Amino acid sequence: MKALALFFVLSLYLLANPAHSKFNPIRLRPAHETASSETPVLDINGDEVRAGENYYIVSAIWGAGGGGLRLVRLDSSSNECASDVIVSRSDFDNGDPITITPADPESTVVMPSTFQTFRFNIATNKLCVNNVNWGIKHDSESGQYFVKAGEFVSDNSNQFKIEVVNDNLNAYKISYCQFGTEKCFNVGRYYDPLTRATRLALSNTPFVFVIKPTDM
């Protein structure tokens, strides 16, 4: 019954534009217009998501939804650090561990609708050790605004928020809010026909996910 309810909720989000279309942004309501919540973000076990700890961010949709998020290098001809954030094709792949850190240094748990920094916690070479923080970068060829990993930039890396999709099912989405403005946009999926990968990008249709502890 719970799975059926989640499928119904998520189906409402999948009625928007195709994943491969150019991004034509619909601005979300600013944070002060969104109902505040005193309930922290919860993982699939119903436990509070702790600041600075490692979790998997996994698609809430099985089948076409894919699995967890991974940091990869889609351009095999490049010697640069891996910077592309993709959704794994396999439902059974939880992806790479991700650390969620609130912008508020006093926060011990992750709260919805508050600014967060996302970073991959994976082994890298010495040159790439700091190139793991999420940010948004425009790609002129595709017209997309992709989630990319790189060095921490204060007016880009910490501008993400986790928003509640269904609090009974612990299902969430991510929004990106431009620094110094009230413009917020959904982070969704984009199928890249050149690399045949599903990437995270700003979208009218959000990527709906659940959060799994890495010790499961």
From TrEMBL:
<feature type="signal peptide">
    <location>
        <begin position="1"/>
        <end position="21"/>
    </location>
</feature>
<protein>
    <submittedName>
        <fullName>Sporamin B</fullName>
    </submittedName>
</protein>
<dbReference type="InterPro" id="IPR002160">
    <property type="entry name" value="Prot_inh_Kunz-lg"/>
</dbReference>
<dbReference type="GO" id="GO:0004866">
    <property type="term" value="F:endopeptidase inhibitor activity"/>
</dbReference>
<keyword id="KW-0732">Signal</keyword>
<dbReference type="Pfam" id="PF00197">
    <property type="entry name" value="Kunitz_legume"/>
</dbReference>
<comment type="similarity">
    <text>Belongs to the protease inhibitor I3 (leguminous Kunitz-type inhibitor) family.</text>
</comment>
<dbReference type="InterPro" id="IPR011065">
    <property type="entry name" value="Kunitz_inhibitor_STI-like_sf"/>
</dbReference>
